[in-house]
Amino acid sequence: MPTTDYLKIPRDRIGVLIGTNGETKEKIEKITKTQLDIDGEEGTVAISPTEEMDDPLGVWKTNHIVKAVSRGFNPDMALKLNEDDVYLEIIKLTLYVGKSKKALARQKGRIIGKDGKTRELIINMAEVDMAVYGKTVSFIGDLENVMVAKEAVEMILNGSRHKSVYSFLEAKQNDRKMKEFKSVVGIEDDKIEFRDDLDD
Fold this sequence. Notes:
This protein is of the alpha+beta class. The protein has helices spanning about 15-20, 25-30, 60-70, 75-80, 95, 100-110, 115-125, 145-155, 160-185; strands spanning about 5-10, 35-40, 45-50, 85-90, 130-135, 135-140.
C-alpha cells in the first residue's frame, strides 16, 4: 500500500486547495480516492491513500495535483494530472535569473508578454496549460507538448527574441499536425516524402 506523502505549499494557495466550504478538497479526494490533511498554519499537506484507492500511483498523482494548485493552476486544470498521460513540469526561474527580484520580474514580464500575448501563444501553440506564479513557470499537458512549451520558455530565459520563440513554436506545431495527419491516414513516419523538384 502506498505510504503518506507530505508537501509544503504557499499559504496563499491553501484557500484555493480547500475551496469554498471545503468543496475543492473534497472533489480532489473523491476523484483520486486519497485523503488530504491540510494544515493552513504550517502550509503543509499530507496525502494518504484510502481503502478504495485502486491506482498504485494514486498518492503520487495527487501529490502532483496539489503541487500544480500550489504553483498557480486552478484546481480543475490540476485535476487533469489524475490521467495517466498528463504531466506537470515546473521551471524554477531562479536557476536562470539568480536571486535578483528585478531580473525575476523582468523575465516573468517577457514570458507573459504584452497583454499576456506571449503566454497565450505558448498555451495555444504548444497545447498546454500554463501558470506563472512566484518564482516558477509550470505546464500541464501531454509530455511532448510540455517539453515544447518548456523549451520555448527556456529560449526566452536565455535571451532569445520573441520572434525566434514564435517561429520555434510554429515549427513544432506544424510537426505535430503532420504527425496527426499521418496517423489519421495511416502513413508511417518514414514513408512520406516531399518532392523538392517541383519548383525547378
